[in-house]
Amino acid sequence: MTQALIRKLEAFTALSEAEKAAVLAAPATVRQLEAREDLTREGDHVNAVNVLLTGFALRYKTLADGRRQIVSIIVPGDFCDLRAYLLGGIDYSLAAVTTATVGIIPRERLDQLVAAHPRLRDALTWCGLVEEAIAREWILNVGQRTALERAAHLFCELFHRLRAVGLTRGKRCELPLTQTELGEAMGLSAVHVNRTVQELRRLGLISLEGRELTIHDLPMLEAAALFSPAYLHLAGRSAERLQRA
Amino acid sequence: MTQALIRKLEAFTALSEAEKAAVLAAPATVRQLEAREDLTREGDHVNAVNVLLTGFALRYKTLADGRRQIVSIIVPGDFCDLRAYLLGGIDYSLAAVTTATVGIIPRERLDQLVAAHPRLRDALTWCGLVEEAIAREWILNVGQRTALERAAHLFCELFHRLRAVGLTRGKRCELPLTQTELGEAMGLSAVHVNRTVQELRRLGLISLEGRELTIHDLPMLEAAALFSPAYLHLAGRSAERLQRA
DNA sequence: CGCCGTGTTGACTATTCTCAACCCAGGTGG
DNA sequence: CCACCTGGGTTGAGAATAGTCAACACGGCG
């Protein structure tokens, strides 16, 4: 069930069988989330680390008057709150989009894990760095890209991330967000998202129907998005490259 | 010279004299940067960790056609590239705004440091989490806030962060960014920044002249910005609170 | 059968951008 | 010592992107 996580970690470094087994065994319990259910609210304090196993989730922040911004999309294999137990209180909320399952790794268990398998510590740190890199790209996205570029970019990112954990089928992948939610992720109104998506369809770049995204021409979509996958750091095995150096 | 860093870390946990001494001694060398000089470029690979000791710096990303987005403002005590040696290549560039000095901590030295003082490892991880929290708030900023709110928010954040490391004098602090740069940080054009700053002045909330920012009424400015300092995680000593729990 | 959530469309508005000009202070070279 | 040049800040006018409001369509579910 933590397959996706292992697959992701292996983009950083090859894992031994013992390490893989340790990761697989890490979650003490698994929790089921209903669609729309909150896992965490702003201000909560956590003492475990949650890994998303199946489904989609959103990390979001709200303003006092209700405006909401989605600050990350969480897909299987992603951590919901890596190391967040070090913070006094969490600064975001986290909600499931679809029904979802999360693996709960208690803090002590994580400590044991990295003590027993030192390379996993680096792997987890790397996960945090990638998350941060994605956040930076999102700042660029909302700050500089036009609506069309923004939407195209979001679709490219999601597709690459899902492909990295084996959740694409050919040119297709799941995309269970409503247009309102897509708008909250891109800093656009729902109406404008609708028109923008239609434009991408009209250009023959994508189809989006029934919670499923089809990318007809990924290179073209990437060009339209000014997308370059480097920031996802999935290109492979940076740990190994380091060793050789 | 790493005073600011120590001060910041102490917002997470009280440090022993030995730990403070270790942090002070961490930088193997100090490098001087000219105003506008790049420390890092997209794609670079680093094998050390740089701490900003004096001056201001910017982390930024660019689009193929030249659009530029500043993704973080780095003030004394902040890391320029914490743990970035784990990445295959860096996904951002980093430039000094003013003349600046950075302390260079080689990777091995950092490893020794956290091995000798385990609590410092958590402190550094905490720094990374705070950085990430700031990035999330910036997504919210560009995604949802109006131009006026955005500018007010940026000023509030900077003031709080500088105050935390002892770099404010009463209601004043340095702010050496040009209006063009402020625009690149907020996703606004330089012209619009100008009009927005004037509006904040007209409201009597701030003065901004000669690279110096004065906040006449911080509570009012915070209200105008929908600012709440929780995300900066400076409220103190989360490590201690954890222990008591 | 009717309701609700989501997607779609049109008409109008408004925030923000672009372009272009101008000002001013500080630094440089003659 | 002064002329000039440059980088930043400021202003105005017009254009464009994106937002708002309101209505309607459609499908699934109670």
Summarize the structure.
Helices cover 44% and strands 21% of the residues of chain A. By secondary structure, chain A is α+β, with helices and mostly antiparallel strands.
Distance between the termini of chain A: 34 Å
Shape of chain A: globular
- List low-pLDDT spans of chain A: none
The helix-and-strand class of chain A reads alpha+beta
Mean pLDDT of chain A: 95
Topology pattern of chain A, helix = H, strand = E: HHEEEEEEEHHHEEHHEEHH
Structure write-up:
With 245 residues, chain A is an alpha+beta fold. The first copy, chain A, has a 4-stranded antiparallel beta sheet. In chain A, strands 8-9-11-10 form a 4-stranded antiparallel beta sheet. In chain A, strands 1-7-3 form a 3-stranded antiparallel beta sheet. In chain A, a hairpin with a 2-residue loop joins strand 10 and strand 11. Chain A is globular, with a radius of gyration of 18 Å. The relative contact order of chain A is 0.16. The mean pLDDT of chain A is 95. Chains A and B meet through strand 5, helix 4 and helix 9 of A and strand 5, helix 4 and helix 9 of B. The first copy, chain A, binds a DNA duplex (30 and 30 nucleotides) through helix 7.
Keywords for this entry:
homodimer; 245 residues; four-stranded antiparallel beta sheet; 9 helices; 11 strands; globular; DNA-binding
